[in-house]
Structures are given as C-alpha cells and as structure tokens.
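Page header: ASSEMBLY MODEL / two components / 713 residues total.
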Amino acid sequence: MIRTLMRYDWRNLSADRAPLAVAVVLGVAIAYGAFNGSEWIRFQNRAISEALAEEGERFDRIRNEIPKIESGEKTVSPFADPRQPQSFGRNMGTRYAVMPPAPLGALAIGQSDLYPYYFRVSTNSRETFLNNDEVENPVHLLTGRFDLAFVLLYLYPLVILAFSYNLVSSEKESGTLALTLSQPVSLRRLVMAKVLLRAAFVAALAVLLSAAGVIIGGTNLAAEGAWSRLLVWAAVTAMYGAFWFALAIAVNALGRGSATNAMTLAGAWLLFVIVIPSVLNVAIKALYPVPSRVELIQAIRVAGDESTRQGSKLLARYLEDHPELAPPSKGPGGPPDFGTLLVAVNEATERKVQPVLAEFDAQLANQQSMVDRLRYLSPAIVAQSAFNDLAGSSAHRYKHFLAGVDEYHRQWRGFFVPRILRKEKLNASDLARLPAFTFREEPTADVTGRAGVAFVGLLVAVVLAGIPAVMALRRYPVAG
Amino acid sequence: MLEANALSKSYNGTTALHPLDLRIEPGEIFCLLGANGAGKTTTINLFLNFIPPSSGTAKIGGLDVVQQPLESKRLLAYIPEQVMLYKNLTGIENLEYFTSLAGGRHSKAELMGFLEEAGLARTEADKRVGAYSKGMRQKVGIAIAIAKKARALLLDEPTSGLDPKASNEFSELLKKLSGSGAAILMATHDLFRAKETGTRVGIMKHGHLVARYSTSELGHADLERIYLEHMHD
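Prediction written out in full:
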C-alpha cells in the first residue's frame, strides 16, 4: 500500500519536473559549498606549510651559523647571536604550534576563520603571541561562509518545505484527496507515504551530494575518526530534515490552504533559522559583554611598562620564588643582563594582566554556556553546533588547541629560562633537544559525543512537532 | 447495504442534518432531491466518514463507517460532482492507482476493459487526464467502481453540467451497476434523471428528509409538482 502510494506520488511529482529543478539547485549549492570549504582548507594548509618552511630555513641557517661563530669565523652582536638563549627563545629560534584542519574541516568552515590556527611560540608572555581577541560571535550564528554546513542549515530546509508545504492541502484543493480517501486508505498512511517519498528523495540528494562534496573537497577519509564523524554528520542531517518535515505535516494538518501553509512555514523558517539565532546572539552579548579589546591591550601595556620600571626588584622577587633557577652564587656576578630581567618582567606582566584575561575568559565561558543551554530554542542552532563540532571548526577544538599551546609555551620557557638565568650559551646539539609541538586531535568519542547530544536534541524537536501533527491529522477536515 | 440510523450532524449549534433513518438495499437507486444546503452532501460525507456524525450511525454492508472506516470503504465507490483525478497521469494510470489502493491487482487489458465498460474510448485511456472533459472523468470514476466491484455507490450531483447525451450514458451505467446488485445513493438536482434512473426518491429540506416516494408510483409531472410543493414554505 505505502509502496503504491509512493510510486504514484513519485510519478506525479516527476511529471512536474520540480524534483529535477530542485536537485539541480541543491546540487549546485552543495558543490559550491564543498568547493568553498576545500578552498579554505587548501588555504590553511598552504599557510601552515609556508610557516613550517620558514621555520625550517631559519633553523638551517642557525645550524650553519653556530659552528662558524664558535670557531670565530664569524662575529655577531650579542643580540644576533643564536647561542644566546634569550635571543633564541624570544625570537630567532621560535617555533610554530600548528593546528591542522580536522578530517572533515572542509564541510563546515564555522568559526575556524575567526580563530588562528598557528602560533609562533616564544619565551615572551603568552599574550604577545596569542591573539586573544574577542570572539565576535560565540556561535557564529548569523553570518558565515557559503560552505556545506550553510547549505544544509539554510537551503536544505527550504527545499524540504518546497516539497511538503502543500503535502495535503494541494490534494484537497485539486479534489483528489476525497477520491483517494474514499478508498480504504487512511489520511495518516497517505501522509506517511508522501513524507517517506520526499524524505527519501531529499535525503538521498543531501547525502549523495554531500558525499560528492566530501570527495571534491579532498577529505581524507583514511584519517582517524573520519568515518564515524561522517556517519554522525549524516544522522544529524537526517534528523534536522525530519524536523522540517514534521513541521510541514503539522502545518498541513491544520487544514488551511496551500498559500497559508507556505506563509506559515516560511515564517517558521525565518523564526528558527534567522530570528532566534540573532536574538540569542544579541541577548548573549547584552548579558555577558566581553571587556573591550582596547582595554585588554591597554592593560598589557601598562603592566609591561610598570614591570619594566621595576626591573631588578622584580628579578630579586622572581628568584626568591624560584630558588632553583638562581644562578650559582659563585658564578659570574655583576648586574643582571637584559635577558634575565626580561624573564622576571614577563612573569610580572602576566600576573598583572591575569585578572583582565580571566574576566575575558569568564565572559566567553558564560556566553558559551548560555548558548549551550538556549540553543535548543532553535533546531538550526543545534544542528549548526553539531556540524561545527564534527568538522572541527567549533570553539571546543580551538580551546583544545589553546590548551596544547599553553602547555607547549610552558615547555619552551622551561627549556630556555634556566639557561637564560645561568647565562648558558646554546650549542648545536641543543637544537635537536628543543621542545616540539604536535597537535593531538580531540578524541573522536568526545566530538561524536557532543554531536550525539545535539542529535538527541533534534530528535526531541521532531517528536515535539510530530506528535501534535499526527493528532491534528485525525481531525483533518476532508470535506468542507 | 447503505443504512443510516438516527444519523445527524450539527456544526456549532446549526443542524445540517436532523436524525435520518434510511435503508438502501442492493439493486436500489435512491435519489436525494432538495435545494442547495438541504443536507444531501452532508449525508454523503457522513457515509464516507469525511465528517464525524453528531449522533447516530452510518453503516455500509453492516459495517459502521466510524468504527471500521477502512473495511467499509472496500465496499464503496464515490463519484463526486467533479471526479478529480491526477492530471499528470493518464486515465488508465489513474484507474490503476485507485484500484490498487483498494487492494486490486489488474492487468493492463483488464483495466482497459473496465474503462471500455464505463464507456471511455480506448484511444482516450492513454491520454493524460488533464485533457479530459467532465464526462470522461466521470467515466473513469465509474470504471473505478466497476473494477472495485463496489457494493455501494455514493454519488454527489454526478450529472450536473453533463450534456444530455453524456448524462443519459451515465444513467445507463448506473442502471447496469444497480442491476448487478449495487446499492446507490445519489444526490441530484435533475428531477428527470431521478425519475428515469432512480427506484426511489427522497426530498430533503433544511436537513430533514421530508418525503420519500417510489418512482414507479410517480409520473414526471407528479415529481416536479411534489418537489415544488415541498420547496414552498
């Protein structure tokens, strides 16, 4: 029965050439989205490889230079001497901490164009190399690039609604509903068949074209977790689509005309995809404003100036705090050199800036937790958060990266500061012992777990829209 | 076969159909006459379970249409004033679709046979329904009833707007169906057809079935006179 209904419904639909037109439009949009995503990934990869190449050349030069300086063949000023740990660790020998694009990075650019994906880590205070900028929009709810996630979040619901806004109303208006329902068929079964057909068509389009996008985008499916991420991506896409179908059935079940249905559903699209996310965005910023960037920079400057003025006093206190780092008392005496002072000054600056940064981080965390709670107001936000998570362009992965960078920064300082204080020069063999940064991908289970929560959220939305829809269908006015 | 027991319908306090008792046996053609809004279509929609009754029951072949909506519809064929088919499908495809919903599986030749029996020319059967006249669509409706071997037919002003020849053909088909044992309930404004085709007529007014006659008792002139008399308040 369902198969018969679906077969004839398909004949009817295809006679309109509407499905073909929609397939073409959606296909072009998805291909363009996938192309944009893969361009962004290519751009990131190019930037990363250029950074690493620069580092490699620099290290080659230093490696050549050190023996020449040691043998006296070449003379350089102390500031340009790579053997000086303060020069090397602060500037000449700094290394890049790099976060490569995630396996599905091409699918959702998300906030990855707002966040830096590489840092040049030095012994200076963290703030000098971390672009600790205000994140303009915590969920990047409104704008964004035209990527696959954009197509799925914005256009895919429109395609679904275009197919289903008149699911029942058109049959009623053309009079075929009465003839169909005078056969032993219930309205619910008829609606189910129509939805299944359309869902199968749209889902097949979305999945096939996304798969094409993945291939066009050059996604590395051999990467760890790529397949499970893709699977969850497909599940979230399906559930997000199911929500829009359920909504279309609910609106149809009210028994109004096709035009009214179209207006109502367009309004719902506007509400869930545009209005709620923007209102949420504004509300979050009003409730948890992030201190201004100017304030932060000012605080860093003031703290830096103050610390520099206090110079030697700070060093004395620093060495009291870190007695193990104090130069051997019988070692070379004399006034502390520039590098030694800088270590203490950096530390003091960091301490002074800390409250402003903490305020910054706290507000961002407040924003994020408010988003996490209120995102359930709109399935579009829920789906977007899942897409960004799965593509590795969410705030979660960035935070994970930052934590790694912080750890690396500590290692870097741990390597250089004792040498600076001991005024110990580096030699060629030290180069091989430098700490190196390797990005460890977030565990796949963490990512799919978060997306799984979003999936359940969408499931709840489907049930909330679906139950009243099925109830209302019972009372559908077939006649009159 | 068709049976209404104290069947009534009211909408927000206005009564569209006062309690109606009616039995139509196999082979009978019962013609419902009456002005627009008298309750004819309401009666048919109640038998179709398109609207829930306010009280009473409608039964088809002994099956309560509310309790057993799908089973009762297996026995039923419905021909509205406009038989609306899927425009993008051909006549034979439409027939195939509607009969398969009723669980029937027929070969193309059988389907063509049903259409011919209903009077649709072979050459028309493979054309898209979008180009069909009202009469041709009514014939597809009849073919559905034939293919389904409907035991009960509900017709809502099926001949209004048909030319006399088409209307006559339609009446002949109805007689054939009732001859093979179908019970037919037809709402109509066509007194001539009612007298010609019907076995009984009933006159409805403001939701009441005010009079019933056997057509054999009446002449054409009688029916018109009686009808008009009832229409005067």
